[in-house]
Amino acid sequence: MTARDDGLVLCEDGLARPPWAAVDPMLRAYYDTEWGVPVRDEHGLYERITLEAFQSGLSWATILRKRDAFREVFCAFDPGRVAAFEEADVERLLVDARIIRNRAKIRAAVTNARATLALRDEGGLVDLVWSFQPVAAPAPASLAEIPTRSPESLALSKALRAKGFAFVGPTTMFALMEAVGMVDTHVVGSHRAGPTAPPRGLGPAL
User: Fold this and answer.
1) Per its UniProt record, what Gene3D superfamilies does this chain match (predicted)?
2) SS3 string of 80-149?
3) In whole angstroms, what is the distance from residue 114 CA to residue 26 CA?
4) What pLDDT was estimated at residue 157?
5) How far apart (Å, rounded) are the C-alpha atoms in residues 162 and 188?
6) Nearest alpha-carbon partner for 138 in 194, 190, 183, 191
7) Confidence at residue 193, expressed as pLDDT on a 0 to 100 scale
8) What is the pLDDT of residues 109-137, one digit of tens each?
9) Using CA atoms in the order 17, 19, 20, 26, what is the torsion angle rounded to 10 degrees?
10) Which entry of 111, 112, 141, 201 is 20 to 30 Å from 120 by CA?
11) Neighbours of 61 (CB within 10 A)
12) 87-94 and 103-119 helices, crossing angle to 10°
């Protein structure tokens, strides 16, 4: 593998990826097939918001390795089922070593499920989140040009907080927007940038 001036790494398969996606096969597959592919369903967005919250302060690799366990304990991220969780369920999850055992984040998953249900009367989570999609894509020439937040992520954070969501800060929301295809921050030299990117449409719900 060879580091390039734009911050990307030229991997042994001849494809350029950011350093975080260049070595670990799991992260490489995630970058190549999932990251940045649009997610436009309620379950998918609720799952991404939940996992981004759990990722706060940790590596994304840690979250991906525990993804199947998260899906199991949070009922395949069905907001209707998670919204019914009680304090006993929070305590149960706090002793489950397969996931991130953080009381505030577990409670946020329940809080956000309930907020997601409440939004159904106002157009739904998908319409709210995607209404903050930027008009133009940044098309960064190097990793150094990629921001960690934006006016849109700040506005989305404020809007979600106003609707009762937790752990939805502007930096976390910018990461969400990148992951679900709302803002394309693929470096121009990446094999995922431009016409070589996977077809846009309904992407996997992580």
Assistant:
1) Hypothetical protein, domain 2
2) HHHCCCCHHHHHHHHCCCCCCCCHHHHHHHHHHHHHHHHHHHHCCHHHHHHCCCCCCCCCCCCHHHCCCC
3) 32
4) 97
5) 36
6) 183
7) 85
8) 999 999 999 999 999 999 999 999 998 88
9) 60
10) 201
11) 14
12) 140
Amino acid identity at 28 = R
Tell me phi and psi for residue 3, to 5 degrees.
Answer: -75, 140
pTM for this prediction: 0.90
Is 151 in a helix, a strand, or coil? helix
Instruction: Measure the CA–CA gap between 139 and 137, rounded to whole angstroms.
Output: 6
Amino acid at position 52, single letter:
E
At 137 the pLDDT is 80
Residue 205 has pLDDT above 70, yes or no: no
The pLDDT confidence band at residue 196, using thresholds 50, 70 and 90, is very low
What residues does each domain of the chain span? Answer: 2-37, 42-179
Tell me if residue 17 falls in helix, strand or coil. Answer: strand
Closest listed residue to residue 150, CA positions, set 133, 166, 163:
133
pLDDT at 136: 83
pLDDT tier for residue 194 given thresholds of 50, 70 and 90: low
With a cut of 80, say whether residue 87 has pLDDT above it.
Answer: yes
Residues 6+ apart with CB under 8 A from 149: 170, 171, 173, 174
CA pair distance 119, 23, nearest whole angstrom: 40
Which residue numbers are catalytic? 30, 52, 60
Residue 117 CB neighbours (<10 A): 18
Could you please state the CATH topology (level 3) that the domain comprising 42-179 is classified under: Endonuclease III; domain 1 (1.10.340)
